Amino acid sequence: MQIDQYLPVLMLLVLASGFVAFMLLGSVAAGKLGRKSKVKDTAYECGVEPVGSGTPRMSVKFYLVAMLFILFDIEVVFLYPWAVVYRELLKDPVTANLVFGAMVSFLAILFVGFIYALKKKAFDWKS
């Protein structure tokens, strides 16, 4: 019967849920039993006494540059598979032209975005 095929999945789900519940409850119980002190509750960072708040305010420019880095990093990830199979795709002229055109259009759109970011001075850290 078809329900027999789902029995191992159900058993795994129950076992995983039980393990998670046990670990969470065990963590709470062990945390309440432990002795607390001011020294143990302070943040430890490489042996240096923590100074200031744990969440300093970051400039929006930092997040903008980080998002642009992710964008261009993903672009490079898309180039690798294309470069690997491009020689095989050259054997069929229709496929070769289609794949080359798709990659050129992809790079053109990305280049326009890069030029836009340069014009808006998104990569300038000092502003």
Quickly describe the structure.
This protein is mainly α. The protein has 2 domains: 3-41; 60-119.
Description:
With 127 residues, the protein is mainly alpha-helical. It folds into two domains: 3-41; 60-119. Helix content is 72%, strand content 0%. The longest helix has 31 residues, at 3-33. The N and C termini lie far apart (67 Å).
Question: If you average the pLDDT, what whole number results?
Answer: 84
How many beta-strand segments? 0
Tell me, briefly, the overall form: flat
User: Helical amount among residues, as a percent range?
Assistant: over 70%
Rg, Å, rounded:
27 Å
Total of helices: 4
Beta-strand content bin: under 5%
Uncertain runs with pLDDT below 50, 5 residues or more?
A: none
Could you describe the largest sheet, including whether it forms a barrel? Answer: none
Briefly note the structural class of the backbone. Answer: mainly alpha
N-to-C CA distance: 67 Å
- How many domain units? 2
Q: Give the assembly state of these chains.
A: single chain
Order of helices and strands: HHHH
Task: List the keywords.
2 domains; mainly alpha; flat; 127 residues
Give a topology summary.
Layout: H1 3-33, H2 38-41, H3 60-89, H4 93-119
Helix pairs in contact: 3-4
